[in-house]
Amino acid sequence: MYIELKEEGFKIRYDEYGKDKQKHILFIHGLGSSPIVWRDIPQALSEYFHTISIDLIGFGESDKPQLNYTIIYFAQFIKNFLTQIGIKDKDKIIIIGHSLGGYIAIEYAIENKTHIEKLVLIDSSGMLEKPTPLLEQYLDAAMETDPNLRYSKVKKVFENLLAVPSRLIPIIVDIFISVIEKPGAKHAFESAFRNSTTTSINLERLKQIKDIPCLIMWGEKDNLIPLDHINKFRQILKDAKLMVIADAGHSPFVEKTAIVYQRILTFLIGNT
């Protein structure tokens, strides 16, 4: 479904399940991604929660205006979106963010602490001082204009995002290429890339959300944002629950969907 943001007039696509439930979950995807990456986890969790998975502005099927895609901008965009679909500041919300989406979730939580019930950060960016080699390859593949090179570059990157390259479903490459060819998509990708890989979370600001219940999950074989980043978050978010998913890469919910779903569900409905 789509909604047009009142102030900006941009059309935003999102999926929504379990509207009759009282507790809300927002899923925020990573760089160059879309809600399809979450598999059926949002729909499965809708047995217990009202779940929303959004195409971030600039990505997927949402509008792709010529903007400066900073983390602060994305966080304000999320606030505007939630308000417009009827989730008010007084309503508590759970945010599940992956990679770039984790960074956005953190910024949103810092600015809206009383609004956040729990956070789930999966292979989150936010602690990078510069792009990793695989991130640089990802940017190069996204910006490639030669069709003969683009497919092979994107395929190689996507294989390296997985713990086992043969798990890649070829249509995912085709979907990414079809989206990155849309007007404004490359600008959005590069702008978000530059802003998220060359700036780090201010650690003093991060301390402001240390009391929010948080699950930090990481793929054991993440080649994009290495596993040691989990400890960088733990240094500040000392009470966060840490979970490493074995035999999984940068998107553990893709390779180990059932396991990730169960771990998230346990965290959300438990006492932690």
Rg, Å, rounded: 17 Å
Q: Structural class, please?
A: alpha/beta
Mean pLDDT: 96
Would you report the number of β strands?
A: 8
- Share of helix among residues? 25-40%
CATH topology: Rossmann fold
CATH architecture heading: 3-Layer(aba) Sandwich
Main beta sheet: strand number and arrangement? 8 strands, mixed
Low-confidence stretches: none
SSE pattern = EEEHEHEHEHHHHHEHEHH
**Adjacency order of strands in the biggest sheet:** 1-2-4-3-5-6-7-8
Could you say which overall geometry the principal axes of the C-alpha atoms support? globular
Structural domain tally = 1
Distance between the termini: 33 Å
Characterization of the model:
This protein has 272 residues and is an alpha/beta fold. It has a single domain, classed as Alpha/Beta hydrolase fold, catalytic domain (Rossmann fold), CATH 3.40.50.1820. The chain is built from eleven helices and eight strands. The chain has helices spanning 41-45, 71-84, 100-111, 133-143, 147-160, 170-180, 185-197, 203-206, 229-234, 252-255, 257-269; strands at 2-4, 11-17, 24-28, 50-54, 93-98, 116-122, 214-219, 241-245. An eight-stranded mixed sheet has the order 1-2-4-3-5-6-7-8, with helices on both faces. Helix 4 packs antiparallel against helix 5 (147-160) and helix 5 packs across helix 6 (170-180). The longest helix has 14 residues, at 71-84. The two termini are 33 Å apart. The model has no long low-confidence stretch (mean pLDDT 96).
